[in-house]
Amino acid sequence: MTNRVEQVMGLPISLDLRDEGDFTEVVDDVFAWFRDVDARFSPFKEDSEVSRYDRGELTAAELSEDLLEVLELCAYYEQLSGGAFRARLPGRGLDPCAVVKGWAVQRAADMLKAEGATTFCLNAGGDVVTAGEPEPGRPWRVGVRHPEQPLAVCAVLESRDGAIATSAAYERGSHIVDGRSGAPATGLMSVTVVAGDLVTADALATAAFAMGPEGITWAADRPDCEILIVDDSRRVHRTAGLALAS
Where would one find the signal peptide in this protein (predicted)? Predict the structure, then answer.
């Protein structure tokens, strides 16, 4: 059993690993991976690959396979959301963070599984990947932070092998922008998406939040996903298949 918490990529990342055995090496590799991702993909670091590409110091042919994959994901979700989700906004530099976090955490979860880990919860600032059950017959319980009360949760979800991501304004203010207008997103307070992987959950949550009220139906219509959305009128919208903890 292993528990570790580190501040990486500007947020706390925690791992609760319940498997017996020595997983020290892969856990070290996971947190080294997060530090590497931060160094290479942060738009806030002048020497990162993202910043160098944005300044024209690197051509597309010179980019790493990882960054090419991230940019392809950004383009896919921009198209899927009709432009509400964008990694590059007019007047701003390239910022793929809305994809990078989910992509990086999912890659880390895959690293753990590849080394034999079967039961863990990996939490990056509220975006979560789970595997297995911490106790027989009992799934992981993941709290969704209340959009207005920092010390409260608005729901507790059950999760076994899957991912949960939440986009809201409570951590960084109105930082999510509707790429279609260039203005801060309005109409929703919190968007939580449950999916099979965190790349999907995180990108869809961000895109739906950026879309505003129309994002409710849009997100609910995504295949193999469940949603929990709180709008600006404090109405709660959720899909029938959402697994609420009893």
Answer: none
